[in-house]
């Protein structure tokens, strides 16, 4: 979801940035993930910003990104002594209709990205709620099967989280659940039909904005909350094979500690550690930042 501009939002974001400079790492509540990289990324290219979905390759060397203004970006993850330092852009193109013409208007609002082990890619969009197949070379999108539920999503609160499990099953979660006490429905695509297979409990003000599976089939859900003191982020981990999905909270940040984190990708490094790569959506506002964070899961 794009955070709308305006005087109130701008004031909150300014305060967020100010707080981010002075709140220590230890202010994260009961973390089960350790922050190892925190890099601000900026380019002067007009397409730069609004990153809403990301997939890091299994070896942590490459990254694929989408923006909520319809860009597809490929890059290298540059590292020094194993620690992430910057993204080197390898290519950028516009997301396109099947005809090859660039997406236009609100149809450009890509939110979730998922790539399976065979390189098949999918994108979820909001406003015109849909999930499409993505050609990673050309940026062309092909209309995929939809569910009647999708049409009932709010315009700016649709399918934010998209992920593929190790067996190739596609999962999608909307940003809003339909009520403050309602759980979030988890959709899967099976035999060209979307169906709800589970509900994830809604806890506090946090809303889903990104998701990914690790190589063992555990689901990592990135959530966001906007507060008067800035953005908060939370990461929960779920085991779809366990009773009640075995919910574990890995990280909950204090207001303003990070910017508007929206994208998450999970991979494993050479030492066997589970790495979470997260990227913030700056909403194309100069007073926000594009942050690239990496965490090592410790529990």
Q: How would you summarize this macromolecular structure in one to three sentences?
A:
The chain is mainly beta.
Keyphrases for this structure?
single chain, 299 residues, mainly beta, Neuraminidase, four-stranded antiparallel β-sheet, 1 helix, 20 strands, 5% helix
What does this structure look like?
The structure is a single chain. 5% of the residues lie in helices and 47% in strands. With 299 residues, it is mainly beta. It has a single domain (7-297), classed as Neuraminidase. The strands form 5 sheets. It has a 4-stranded antiparallel beta sheet with strand order 1-20-19-18, with no helix packed on it. It has a 4-stranded antiparallel beta sheet with strand order 2-3-4-5, with no helix packed on it. The chain has a 4-stranded antiparallel beta sheet with strand order 6-7-8-9, with no helix packed on it. The model is unreliable at 10-28 (pLDDT under 50).
């Amino acid at each position: 979801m794009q955070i709308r501009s305006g005087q109130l939002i701008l004031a909150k974001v300014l305060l967020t940035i100010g707080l981010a400079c002075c709140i220590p790492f230890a202010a994260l509540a009961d973390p089960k993930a350790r922050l190892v990289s925190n890099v601000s990324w900026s380019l002067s290219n007009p397409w730069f910003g609004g990153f809403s979905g990301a997939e890091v390759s299994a070896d942590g060397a490459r990254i694929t990104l989408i923006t909520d203004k319809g860009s597809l970006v490929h890059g290298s993850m540059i590292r020094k002594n194993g620690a992430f330092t910057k993204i080197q852009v390898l290519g950028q193109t516009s997301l396109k209709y099947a005809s090859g013409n660039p997406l236009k208007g609100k149809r450009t609002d890509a939110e979730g990205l998922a790539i399976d082990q065979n390189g098949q890619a999918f994108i979820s969009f909001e406003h015109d709620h849909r999930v499409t197949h993505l050609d990673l070379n050309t940026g062309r999108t092909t209309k995929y099967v939809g569910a009647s539920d999708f049409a009932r999503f709010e315009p700016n609160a649709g399918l934010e989280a998209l992920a593929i499990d190790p067996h190739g099953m596609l999962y999608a979660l909307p940003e809003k659940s339909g009520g403050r006490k309602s759980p979030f429905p988890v959709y899967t695509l099976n035999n060209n039909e979307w169906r709800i297979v589970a509900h994830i409990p809604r806890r506090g003000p946090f809303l889903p904005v990104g998701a990914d599976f690790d190589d063992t089939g555990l689901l990592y859900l990135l959530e966001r909350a906007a507060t008067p003191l800035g953005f908060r982020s939370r990461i929960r981990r779920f085991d779809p094979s366990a009773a009640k999905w075995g919910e574990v909270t890995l990280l909950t940040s204090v207001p303003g500690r990070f910017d508007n984190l929206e994208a998450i990708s999970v991979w494993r490094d050479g030492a066997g550690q589970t790495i979470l790569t997260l990227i913030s959506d700056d909403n194309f506002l100069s007073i926000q930042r594009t942050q690239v964070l990496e965490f090592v899961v410790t529990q």
